[in-house]
Amino acid sequence: MFVTSHFVSCLVSLKYLTCLDLFSLNISDEMLSSIAMQGFLLTRWFSLQNCTGFSYAGIFCLLSKCEHIQLLDLQNIVFLNHKHVVELSSFLGDLVSINLNHCSILTESAFFSLKSSKSLMDFVAYPQLKHLRLAQNPWLSDEDIIMFASIFPNLQLLDLSNCCRIFDEGITQVLRICCNIRYLNLSGCSIVKLLEMNFKVPKLEVLNLSYTKVDDETLYKISKSCCGLENCTQLRMISLDGCHKVNGNVVASMVSSRLSLRKIIAPIRFCLTDKDKKYFLLHGCLVC
């Protein structure tokens, strides 16, 4: 969708704008510069997710003038590289949440190589960073995500979906450090099995294990061990979609043993009858 000059004129007239979502718009550097020059109080949320038509110069101009943004969404900004991120980091000291999903040309050096005061490590090295989205980033390894956990231990949301180099060891260490995790997305992490998840994750609410190597043995250990899902007392939703090694019979066991569950996305081998659906709903859980 293209942005008209009338839209830009109306936008820059909003002197007290604190949030701006430009999702999937075709914008320009001139538009971003115009917004920057108006001295907006963009302090809460700024999203360029899936936007086109602009360059790094536009982002730099805007963020350099709006240095107190808390939630920044740069998903699918395909030209964004590690040098850009390092440079932008000096403007983002108040950041609470960042979305770098599908920024596939980012490298580890965007986070760890540069030790100067302008490295990304510096701006995320604060306990206030709660949300981190890194889906579809092929460079991520166990070493990287363990380092992330050490830098911001108060993470509540972590999206690592389709990060194909992540193993059980990395996830286990992250969960041991980040005990406030509420939302964990491991969908498409095709080598993750979570056999070592035998510790407390007391605040976990959403666990997406779709298209992982999780099997019956994994779920049995998680749900039956004294330190597995029994201690995930807040767990509301779990997704097992595409988990071909999970037997459908595990669904009923999970509903009865984990009373906090409100939704289960069942494995492909599970056949849901109307009778089953009513039974699960009586337990307060939607199975689909």
Automatic annotation (TrEMBL):
InterPro entries: Leu-rich_rpt, Leu-rich_rpt_Cys-con_subtyp, LRR_dom_sf. SUPFAM superfamilies: RNI-like (SSF52047). It comes from the Eukaryota. GO terms for cellular component: cytoplasm. This is F-box/LRR protein. It comes from Medicago truncatula (Barrel medic).
